[in-house]
Design brief:
2 copies of one chain form a homodimer. By secondary structure, chain A is α+β, with helices and mostly antiparallel strands. Chain A is about 15% helix and about 35% strand. Strand 6 of chain A pairs antiparallel with strand 11 of chain B.
């Protein structure tokens, strides 16, 4: 390889074009506990779709179902344009390794974002500036090291345990790449899975945990993001329920200027 | 046909088993503006999965991407078990008509819900009892007639127009089948798409509108729902942003006793 992308994230989510089958490779830099960080996997899938010659428009929605662990190494992305209309596209992506069962199943919608009436009903979650908050110092896994987390609310405390009843699952934090990188839809996709498990916050301890299904909606197109020209987002995540081994999470990613860039929701497994 | 299901909803979401290809048919009772009510389509897909001989566990997540209009009449459901683990299953469903392009693309996760630590962080949205609220009287389309909507907050007002700035997109309402029917995962799936377009509320007027992608998470299994034994839910829906022809919606479906049964999110097209 003669040229290396400038940023680790771009290296981690690199894809090689094929016909319907594209290729990617897990990254040691974005490794989690038992496999690649799901956000990097989701961003890799999104990158392949964006780079696809048939793609038109901006990503609107991406759902990623994590079906089985991904092993270290190469993977194939079987990409299919399921339906194209005048102004939108529906895609389906299957990630496999060595011809085995599907490990990740994703669907995506792309759309031409036409001008319309515009109204942001949600309120910008106020927070102290990024520079006034200390970075989160603990780096549990390699992928955590790639981000600069600065908690304004819901500072992680995973060592005290659930002694006096459940703690709040709400977190508000700045997220940027540790090595600053301009926010694009790929980083938004990855950051939408970069919250720590809500159950870790609620129980104040770590436990077996894994995202099962993740859906992210993009509320800014490439033009909107170019106009923002930012390297970090203000992120909010919360949960509503923990029940029979599964819990939910909903989140928002905001530009520092107060624009809602993406919303995300996921359902995750936990053992407690 | 010698026996007819007792309830219109069960008739509307009926499926005929096949090998991988199942069959359904649109229902005049659940017709919307330019096609079948999306909630009925989603519930039909879920019914086919639940009835599938290889299915095990309870539905955990269903994402439905509405790719193209569905015409009145028969449709085929191409159902594929993408991956099965010890305690979860990942499915993919494609809805087509007459061998044409995919009109609806869905992915689903089923899981064995094992006992665990349980905690409902979200607060039950208080509302006056169902009996104390008048039913919503306007029936814009056939599908609306199949539900009994009783608004506790965000009463629809689609005739006054957006004169003094955007109105709130928040609604809180009781939803039951017009002919009472016990709440199961099928009705939860359908009801999760039974909110009026948030943009109708925000702009106080009707306009071209269509759900593009819908995701619902189930927080109660069959045993939990049997224990509730209810015929209506308290539902809350809101939106965060309307921008460049697309808007979001998030919602919750609660049992009258205060249990969170399902959460849902969607992204929709609008023309304004």
């Amino acid at each position: 390889m003669l040229t290396k992308p400038a940023h680790l994230f771009d290296d981690a989510t690199r894809v090689t074009a094929g016909d319907s089958c594209w290729r990617g490779r897990t990254s040691a830099d974005y490794w989690a506990f038992v496999g690649p960080f799901g956000g990097a996997t989701a961003a890799t899938i999104l990158r392949a779709l964006i780079d696809h010659p048939q793609r038109s428009g901006d990503p609107l929605a991406l759902t990623v179902n994590f079906c089985a662990p991904i092993a270290e190494g190469d993977f194939d992305l079987d990409i299919r344009l399921v339906k194209a209309n005048r102004s939108s596209q529906h895609w389906c992506v299957e990630l496999t390794q060595g011809g085995a069962d599907v490990a990740t199943l994703a669907t995506a919608v792309f759309a031409e974002r036409r001008p319309s009436w515009s109204h942001q009903q949600a309120e910008f979650p106020q927070a102290p500036p990024f520079e006034q908050i200390l970075p989160y110092p603990k780096v549990a896994g390699p992928w955590v090291r790639q981000y600069d987390f600065r908690f304004a609310d819901g500072d992680p405390d995973f060592d005290s345990g659930i002694k006096q009843g459940p703690a709040s699952a709400l977190s508000k934090l700045w997220i940027g790449d540790r090595v600053p990188r301009k926010i694009d839809v790929l980083s938004l996709m990855s950051m939408s899975d970069a919250f720590f498990g809500r159950v870790f916050h609620a129980r104040r301890e770590l436990m077996p945990f894994g995202t099962v299904s993740l859906t992210t909606y993009f509320h800014a197109d490439a033009e909107d993001l170019a106009a923002e020209d930012i390297t970090r987002v203000l992120a909010v995540a919360d949960a509503k329920i923990f029940h029979k081994s599964y819990c939910d999470q909903s989140g928002e990613l905001w530009s520092p200027s107060g624009r809602l860039l993406a919303t995300t929701t996921q359902i995750a497994y936990f053992k407690a």
